[in-house]
Amino acid sequence: MTEQTHTINSNKWIDNYADYMFNYAIVRVNDSDIAKDLVQDTFFAGLKSAKNFQGKSTERTWLVSILKRKIIDHYRKINSKKGKAEVRMNFYDDGENEGNWIEERVPQNWDNASEKKIETEELRNQLESCIDALPEKYAMVFRLKTIQEFETEEICKELDITASNLWVIIHRARTQLRKCMEDNWFNN
Question: Which of 14, 69, 71, 133 would suit a FRET pair with 26, their CA atoms being 20 to 30 Å apart?
Fold first, then answer.
């Protein structure tokens, strides 16, 4: 039995897959700089492990599977104590970069659509605050399963928990989120 080798064409990765992978990452991390870094890390990891590509999937599918791991690693890092310290160190609160997180916009008409957009943004912000208030493990599992739509088996494997434990965590997270939203949004 001869071992079949599959060659990959890494010279075309950026042209063929960068946009798709960036869009995939940005939806999951909601930060364009982090998404760009994750895609770059994915390409680098793909180059390093190119000899492991077996051709059982397309190059894009193989790269996206690497990207999924990078996204999970990103969330693990920011949910660890060390990761939180690193995230805080990267925040600028003075100097020339102060306020660069505020997106400059052209003034818009204050019509009903604008009010709905503001209310939707406020609701999203309140929901994020409630998710952030959850215990770390609850927030991580909730985001991975409900927001980022990772498969149950993948989450269980990565976090070393059982499927029943995952669903208990999801149930408890939803219960706490409902209470938080009732207290901070619906009853205000």
Answer: 133
